[in-house]
Amino acid sequence: MSPDSELVIGVLLPDLLGTYSDAGNAVVLAQRARWRGIGARVLHVTTTTAPPADCDLYLLGGGEDEAQAFAVEWLDRHPALRRAMAGPAVTFGVCAGLQILGTTMTDTGGRRRDGLGLLDLTTEPGTRRAVGEIVVRCGIPGVGLLTGFENHRGFTTLAGTTAPLGGVVSGIGNGGAHEGGAVEGAVAGQVVATYLHGPVLARNPALADHLLERVTGRTFTAADAPDVPDLAAMRRSYLDGRPSRRSRRGAALFRR
Ligand code: GLN
Predict the structure, then answer these.
(1) What is d(CA 206, CA 110) in angstroms, rounded to the nearest whole number?
(2) Which of 64, 132, 143, 248 has its Cβ near the most Cβ atoms within 10 Å?
(3) Quick check: CB of 19 below 6 Å from ligand 1?
(4) Is residue 98 scored above 90 in pLDDT?
(5) 157 lines ligand 1 (CB under 6 A)
(6) Is the pLDDT of residue 1 over 90?
């Protein structure tokens, strides 16, 4: 985007994909951009809207298998949007959004569908559902630990030049086989995807800033944003209130 232009964030199909308020990621991005003096506008692109192909950033949220299948058919009908999502725009997918951005996905009924092919990954039903809190050590320099909530049956295997978003510290993550241990999410070119809900960018402002850096070409630090309550302390108190073994492990991480 040019230095004086307004950042336009397109939330794709919030009426279908957004089981855990994933559209909230757009609110976080827009506000963090405004805090840096960048004008920002959020467009909700519903199933009945003609989708714009000139957004700076596209967001795809999570959803059930049926909603996901419909979303892929809808995206097939809009080739200009599909091309824009491959770049120059930045595209960020969550859960079903991650699966849609891949090459193929198979649902629990065994039906295989092509995805958008923007990420080299395939998704197959796992042996069990991955549900619960997850902690990921993000591979993007400076982003640090990510926390979120995962709920998916699809297990994803990465291939080619698509890299994981990070390594799983606690939780399941992609679920597919990966050399060197469990990984989470996917990154290739200007496309970033994760299984983390939350909304994930509300819980992980450093990841939101990283997406803004990709769009603007600028560098941001947390200090550019106004003081917010200590997020690490808030997460710690949340995790401390949940007595499961996994939660206690997550809480211990944030005590360091
Ligand atoms: N339908 C997908 C699955 O269960 C995605 C779920 C989600 O987006 N939360 O794997």
Answers:
(1) 37
(2) 143
(3) yes
(4) yes
(5) no
(6) no
- pLDDT of residue 237 exceeding 80, the answer is no
pTM of the complete model: 0.90
The string of DSSP codes covering 191-214 is EEEES-BSSHHHH-HHHHHHHHHH
Q: Which among 19, 25, 68 is the best mutation to test ligand 1's pocket, defined by most ligand atoms within 8 Å of the CB?
A: 68
Ligand 1 mean position to 16 CA, how many Å? 12
Domains defined along the chain, listed by start: 7-252 (3.40.50.880)
The angle formed by the CA atoms of residues 141, 35 and 138, to the nearest 5 degrees, is 20
Whole-Å CA distances, 112 to 58, 100, 166: 25, 12, 27
153 CB within 6 A, ligand 1: yes
Index of the ligand 1 atom closest to the CA of residue 94: 8
Best probe residue, ligand 1, of 153, 174, 196 (max atoms within 8 Å of C-beta): 153
Beta bridge partners of 198: none
Q: Name the DSSP class of 224.
A: G
pLDDT of residue 73: 96
Shortest CA distance to 62 belongs to which of 84, 38, 40, 93? 93
pLDDT in tens, 216-236: 999 998 777 776 666 667 766
